[in-house]
Amino acid sequence: MINRVFLIVLDSCGIGGAADAKIFGDDNPDTLKTIAASKNFHTPNLSRLGLFNIDGINFCPREKNPQSSFARVVEASNGKDTTIGHWEIAGIISAQPLPTYPEGFPPEVVAELEKNFGRKILCNKPYSGTKVIHDYGQAHEVTGDLIVYTSADSVLQIAAHEKIVPVDELYNFCRTARKIMQGVHGVGRIIARPFIGEFPNYERTPRRHDFSLKPPAETILDALNKKNLATIGVGKIHDIFAGQGVNRSLDVNVDNSDGMNKTLRLMNENFRGLCFVNLVDFDMKFGHRRDVDGYAQAMTDFDAQLGEFLGVMREDDLLMITADHGCDPAAKGTDHTRENVPLIVYGSKVRAGVNLGTLQSFADIAATIAEIFSVELDTPGKSFLGCIRK
């Protein structure tokens, strides 16, 4: 019997452009290929599990005897962002993309926000998060106006200096924005971006917080929760699902290593259910900032901790490693990239060396977890448990 499933999302680790990548403005992206060419890339544990045996990966040596079952997975949803990607992993396929604002938010939205904030808005453009506080931080300090900006993602971000707007107050502004940004303007996330320091050396703090749109349907988290099974979120999971279906959450306030350390500590606990982990640094610190070597080093660091994780897995554990979209650090701009993602499934109850080929939806992951725990989930995903179980 499988009692614990650990689902680790390497945020943005795509493995090559999806068939429809050009429709999403992407020209042959390949996040994994880009970082694998870096001198900082060294992933022996992912290699022995079978990462480089996945269909379409031809730039690293294949393992003769891969220890996991593995697949290339296609995103069926109409998007390439964190929210839609995780929703699909959890069983929901989104036909409509979440709204984005390449020209900034429309006047009627800005007016509604300002009326409810009781403060004016600065910026209102797509912007780099570090550059926006450099360019607007001084005006914010003088006026108290809030820095509101977006990106290529479906987000509304509010930046404020902690000495001008205390963090709890900033969170309340975000909660207000979340109530306003619904329906046609239902962005995936409202993000609080507190910062500190003096111009020109402002610094963003770890007290970022996401206020997400609620999933439009039940997810694997809800299905497990209904049966009183554990649903533990590590990192951004609670935020991504607006807390829905997550009965325990462990925040990650430092980096990916902190996230893995918290996951490793969970290995000592007895529970039956799902531990859902998001490692955001790959995307936030390296993909968007187009830092190839930094991304490669982060993957190397993860691989070392993965080795530790594999060494303490129990007989009744199952590990899944996947991603939610791409963010090729060699691509133009700073946007996510529309890519297929990897899937590695490992454990003593899993057959080694099974190539599942190309799965047609991330939702197959949720369907498989539902079958493992014998819970009902209304999802278009198809379980692959029968193909991999010993």
Describe this structure in words.
This protein has 390 residues and is of the alpha/beta class. Strand 3, helix 5 (129-143) and strand 4 (146-150) form a beta-alpha-beta unit. The termini are close together. It has an eight-stranded mixed β-sheet, with helices on both faces. Strands 3, 4, 5, 6, 7 and 8 form a six-stranded mixed β-sheet that branches. The chain is 32% helix and 19% strand. The chain folds into two domains: 4-96 and 215-388, Alkaline Phosphatase, subunit A (3-Layer(aba) Sandwich); 107-212, Phosphopentomutase (Alpha-Beta Plaits, 2-Layer Sandwich), CATH 3.30.70.
Q: What labels describe this entry?
A:
alpha/beta; Alkaline Phosphatase, subunit A; Alpha-Beta Plaits; 14 strands; 19% strand
Q: Could you say what the CATH architecture of the largest domain is? A: 3-Layer(aba) Sandwich
Distance between the termini: 11 Å
Secondary structure tally: strands: 14
Order of helices and strands: EHHEHHEHEEHEEEHEHEHEHHEEEHH
Secondary structure elements and their pairing?
Layout lengths: L3 E7 L20 H6 L7 H6 L19 E5 L8 H8 L17 H11 L3 E6 L2 H15 L2 E5 L4 E7 L5 H14 L8 E8 L6 E2 L4 E4 L7 H7 L3 E5 L2 H4 L7 E3 L5 H11 L6 E7 L1 H7 L4 H20 L5 E6 L18 E6 L8 E5 L3 H11 L11 H4 L2
Parallel strand pairs: 1-11, 1-12, 2-14, 3-4, 5-6, 9-10, 9-11
Antiparallel strand pairs: 2-13, 4-5, 6-7, 6-8, 12-13
Helix pairs in contact: 4-6, 9-11, 10-11
